[in-house]
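Record minuted for completeness.

…
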Amino acid sequence: MEFLKDLFGQQYNSNSFFLLAGPCVVENEKNIMQTAATLQNICSQLKIPLVFKSSYKKANRTSKSSFTGIGNIEALQILHKVKTTFGIPLVTDIHTNEDAALAAEYVDVLQIPAFLSRQTDLLEAAAQTGKIINIKKGQFLNAESMHHAAKKVCDSGNTKIMLTERGNSFGYNDLIVDFRNIPIMQQSGYPVVMDCTHAVQQPNQSSGITGGTPQYVSTMAKCAIATGANGLFIETHPTPAEALSDGANMLPLNEMQGLLEQLVRIKQAII
């Protein structure tokens, strides 16, 4: 996990946990900068290494009419402003081979969405950028299967890999999380992240808009820290009800500090 030291510098502490957090998608500069400033302030106080997360585009939408982004370059430039203003590393989703090369010019971590975790050419293209690759476990995969996804990246010459748990499909419109998946995936030798917000999604609603139960985000986060997760993924927004993507499962920004304070205490209690 040496690459985490390179990513976070002096902030990195193997006895703590790191955080990937931010709005689901870049909506506008004001929203992104406000969220980044708030998260940086909280994480600085609590000594939590932070990667700012926001997708520069959303390609995997339920409905054709769903918001997909403000434009690739404009969104990536806003993310780059976060990095230059606050000194925070960045993570964003990619969906195609071409996305890998484009996003790598701006961000530090390329994220493979769960639905694409078996796409060999995408994993290889991401690996070849030399960036850290965060692979989300598909809702249709067991934890052991993620060894094969990681191996595709590793065999392409890149060992800077994170694996992310985000639940498994349960029935038609819900997910369930098996927290055994965290230690199972850690057996690969790569850090494991818990996606606390997508794990409470209720996808594929008949309305064409994904639902969710954000009141359980804190439950997912607490369980993940207690289970030994290396990092947490939490999408957050100043006003989730007004968010243009995944508002139904994002944590309100004003609830982040209280939750993170609790999680720090849990982590300190178990080390």
Q: What stands out?
A: Residues 147 and 187 are 9 Å apart (CA to CA). Residues 29-46 form the longest helix (18 residues).
